[in-house]
Amino acid sequence: IFVYPVGDWLDGLLQRLRGLGIWGPVLYSVVYMIASTLFVPASLLTLGAGFAFGAIAGAISALAGGLLGAALTFLLGRTLARHIVEKRAAHSTTFAALDRGVADKGFKLVVLVRLTPALPFAPLNYLFGATRVRFRDYVLGSLVGMFPGCLMYTYLGWITQSLAGTARGSLDRTPAEWALLAAGLIAAVIVTVVITRMARGAMREAAAAAEG
User: Fold this and answer.
1) How far apart are CA 111 and CA 67, in angstroms?
2) Cβ within 8 Å of residue 200, ≥6 positions away
3) For residues 93 and 53, what is the distance between their CA atoms, to the nearest angstrom?
4) Is residue 42 within 8 Å of residue 150, measured between CB atoms?
5) Rounded distance, CA 166 to CA 146, Å?
6) How does pLDDT run across 42-58, given as a tens digit for each residue?
7) Among candidates 26, 64, 203, which has minimal Cα distance to 147?
8) Euclidean distance between CA atoms 30 and 154, whole angstroms
9) Could you give the dihedral angle defined by the CA atoms of residues 121, 122, 126 and 127, in that order, rounded to the nearest 10 degrees?
10) Is 5 left (phi over 0), alpha (psi -120 to 50) or beta?
């Protein structure tokens, strides 16, 4: 990410995909899936989906790509990369507590982890692959937990695209429309922050119970 101009590559790709109609979001889901296994930040990819395809199509594309990427990375962490993941997590008390917790409450813990956007997406996918969580619980928990953050980031990407279009003179909105967009963004951020705090508290309680 720091060595190569990933942001420029992503911007160029988005420009091309926007001209492909319905196939643009579909292909972007595939790009999202592959990029997320290579540690490209999920927030950047989700913002890009909203910027290129709008709030609704972008959210669907990002959620599909993120879920596929999470599943693929999980399977890699459980098979080809398992030895590396286990070696790096061997001395982590957090990993040990997480492993004990997901054995009994896999779906709940996956949802709580996904509801915390600050936690790194790709490393957690690999880490979950080395735990005892069932694949079904992992996928369903990821789907539920990723949904709120996905909506917020794609909405933010859509507003950014609207601002860029206004600056170029290719898009004109009334003050009332901008007020509605701003209100929607503020509401999305507030809901995400509240959910994140609740999830963190529940994760601490779950981790304490698992350690006990």
Assistant:
1) 13
2) 116
3) 41
4) no
5) 30
6) 888 898 888 888 888 99
7) 64
8) 17
9) -40
10) beta
Write out the E strands in 113-193: none
Question: What whole-number distance in Å separates Cα of residue 136 and Cα of residue 104?
Answer: 13
Q: What is the pLDDT of residues 105-150, one digit of tens each?
A: 778 888 888 887 666 788 888 888 888 888 998 999 999 988 888 8
Rounded to whole angstroms, the Cα distance separating 66 from 117 reads: 13
Task: Single out the residue of 105, 107, 199, 109 nearest to residue 149, CA to CA.
Answer: 199
pTM, full prediction: 0.74
Helix (H, G, I), strand (E, B) or coil at 36: helix
Identify the residue whose tokens are 């509240």: 194
